[in-house]
Amino acid sequence: MSMALVRISLTLLFPFLISFYCSTRTIRLPSSPLSITPINSQISWEQTVDSIKIFHSKSKQEFISLSLDRPFIRAAEGNADVKYRMASFRFKDDLVRICNDQIIEQVLVENGKLVLKGKVSGKNCDSGFSLKFIPQSEKEVSFSLELSDIRLNRVWFSYDSKETESFYGFGEQFSNDNFKGKTPFMFTEEQGVGRGDQPITTGANLLAGAGGNEYTTYAPIPHYISSENRSLFIENSGYSKFDLTDSNSVSIELWETNLQNGLKGTIWIGSHPKELVEAYTKKTGRFAPLPDWAYGTWLGVQGGAEKVTAIVDQAKKAGNPVTALWIQDWCGRRVTNFGDQLKWRWYAEETLYPDFKNFVKSMNGKNIQVLGYINSFLADTDPKKPGGDDFTNSLLTEAKNKGYLVKNSKGEDYLIQTVGFPAYLIDLTNPSAVKWTKDLIKKNMIDVGLSGWMADFGEWLPYDAKLFSGVDAKVYHNKYPVDWARINREAIKEAGKEGKIVFFTRAGFSYSNAYSTLFWEGDQLVSWGKHDGLPSSILGLTSSGISGFALNHSDIGGYTTISNPIANYHRSKELLLRWAETSAFTPVFRTHEGNRPLKNWQVYQYTSKEGVASRSDEETVTKFAEMGKLHYALKDYFTELVLEANKTGLPVVRHSYLVEPNDTEIRKFPYQFFVGDDLLYSPITKPGQTETEVYLPKGEWEHIWTGKKFQGNFVYQVEVPLGKPAAFIRLGGMKEKTLRGFISKIGK
Fold this sequence. Notes:
Helix content is 22%, strand content 30%. The chain has 748 residues and is an alpha+beta fold. The protein folds into three domains: 1-154, no CATH class; 300-652, TIM Barrel (Alpha-Beta Barrel), CATH 3.20.20; 654-746, Immunoglobulin-like (Sandwich). The strands form nine sheets. An eight-stranded antiparallel β-sheet has the order 9-10-11-12-20-17-16-14. An eight-stranded parallel β-sheet has the order 32-31-30-29-25-22-21-33. Strands 8-7-13-19-18-15 form a six-stranded antiparallel β-sheet, with no helix packed on it.
């Protein structure tokens, strides 16, 4: 674009008004650069020929630099064509008019704020803008961008970046580690089946448009930290996209229904990336400590009281420190063409679990906590089921009669086809529906003795839905899972069970960390795939930790199981046990049978009365118990880290950049991660591996199994036999004493 088209006016024609501490004076912009000018006693700004910069007055560290050789604000009016199927969204935007040109007319510094005013324009497009930067503290600046034309609903905000700058975070991201050169978008949806791994992604797209891509995720967060030790967070909840493909700039695209309310955000600077995570979580929320029982093995099994009791007893006999039984089919089992699913009606299924309350009590007597399942859907009868469907749902009938459901564009209850059967979403903007839902949780779940549950879904709100409050679904879509977590948390608090009950969510957005008690990573494939298998679950842990999800974990062995003539995705013994090794170094150690339990290798051996046996063997039960004991041996360390997370927001599982920000070599090993600062783990991510390359940063390290010492700043080939994961403790670390206790418990 030519300078004529850019039209950023830096001539004497446009006066700049500058106000210092409430006294205003008018100056004309000279041809030479302006001197440094304070905004307040700690933060200054400077205008040069090339840019406007805001920086810390003493350290000179930049908050932001706005280039003056191209527009840093553009706007448009757009009409989005959004395709929706199974919570997979496809966006196509038709821009009716575009304001690509920008003029700066004024710069005002008054009352401790820096304000830039001007216009954006183009064919049939003209709007004033106001961009404000407001220092909040020595290292925090908030900003807002407002447009005067109320019809404009798209805005692009650009600022400078360095060619060497790396970007980490953006919520729970499964495919990428450093986002320099990438274009992540922020819209909560199903992560997709395959997400680029083949042939499954192509197959999922052909059958249901549900393959996903490298950016699809349940929990995007418009927040990052960069290798320049600065961090940016966008407050808005509409669809947004970060374009990091230009080596010298960042561009943020935001869709909003009314940009008079503006694009709003916060920028932090710090001397260390941990400082940035602490600042972000101070603003958005931190996780509460976990109860003591949460650090043992959580067995995720289903099939009725007799089966789950036998599996719990088997695991404990093998020495597995089982402290929780997660039975998602407490509400009933519903078999569909997708596999074993649930009856989405939220009360105990007495057929599978007779006298459910007493069953829970009996498990508690064995020091086993019982967890269930809930989501914000209410299921309906499936009219497509061969031979008819005898399913009934009294809760759905009640919710329909009381007007508690999300509506479609015609004002009718919005029927959504989920995987397996149709269902309706509860309208979380309706206060009466919220109270009804919380009462349901308190009565049907907490009062029967459940110690927690999976609070599933949250990402399925249709883009064109109509809501009780009148808020546009386009901007509420990303907020829906946050409110879903908040409602679960409030129900627990109202029942007087704070700190005793744990619910875990998969969908999330900004401020989810203020309400969820735990996250899990959703439905990975039972595979080794980079984009949707075991490796992807590791990047999900490290990226989400940077964006406030301090407590996170995955289904051990993955979830999505598919039988297909081209390629089967069935869990193998090796995958299950290697996944268990990785999960042993996360705060919660929980299994899942997957959507087709009989196709997957399981952590238990069980044969039904009908003679149907699980895919497993005695060695698996034994080795899985060993991994359970390994995880439990870290209990003291985990407890300290969880308390630290509650106080500081720092995640338990830590991206290497958080711990060793000055070590550029360690960034070449994206699947390594730290547990706290003093325990480093290098996972096996490919089948057939019995050794791995481990990079150890500066200092001295000790292998947890052999006691062998290693000097840092070096890459080592380390043998990793099954059941002996590659983990090292930092000698001289702050928590070496606690980790010595861990090593003494696991033996050699």
